[in-house]
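User: I'm writing a tutorial on reading structure tokens. Could you give me a worked example: one chain, its sequence, then its tokens, then a sentence or two explaining what the tokens reveal?
Assistant: Sure. Here is the example chain.
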Amino acid sequence: MKIISKLTISGILASALTISFAGCAAESSRVIENPTPIAVLTTCPVAKPSVSIGRFNNHSTYNNGIFSDGEDRLGNQAQTILTSDITASGCFAMLDRTNMSAMKQENALSGNASNFKGAKYVLSGDVTEFGRKTTGDQQLFGILGKGKTQVAYAKVNINVIDASTSQVVYSASGAGEYALSNREIIGFGGTAGYDSTLNGKVLSLAIRDAVNNLIRGLQNGAWK
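And here are its predicted structure tokens:
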């Protein structure tokens, strides 16, 4: 009886360990089409085009309902991400326009005249699609286990505008999807509530994809 008892206990412990590992939370991400990261795109033009960032608006249905407070948080976040990605690509001479008042003030305090450069192109953009959903499943009414997956999706568009003529000379779009999954099996595993960071993660994926396409167009001579 003692031998059987020990074997039984060992079996229970082994099963519990297996279930706990099987119930761990998992994250996955993917870029929709053209998933090449910016770091791989190393061939940039010798004469880097000077660009500045114009407006970036949220034109999706997300946070644009009758209960919206009117502040475009998603658009502002997208503008910040685009500025970082354009600068990190190394293919553009990025000119900042959001801190001009502060720079003028610093130049005045230093006794220097401001000598701001004009950009050849202005990049404007829109969040055209944005949404998220949560799906779940249960095994034997949740007794044997249950799972939940949070999925966020975003699509953005970037226009290249000639600053001297206001002509749109090129347009690029990008899309991304980000998923966070959790599974609980017989009381083991991870659980997660609403993860607001998915909004920023999927927006970054979509903008990264659009910037990649923007650089490809520059490399192919579609705009210069």
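What the tokens reveal: The CA atoms of residues 43 and 146 lie 48 Å apart. Residues 183-189 have pLDDT under 50 and may be disordered.
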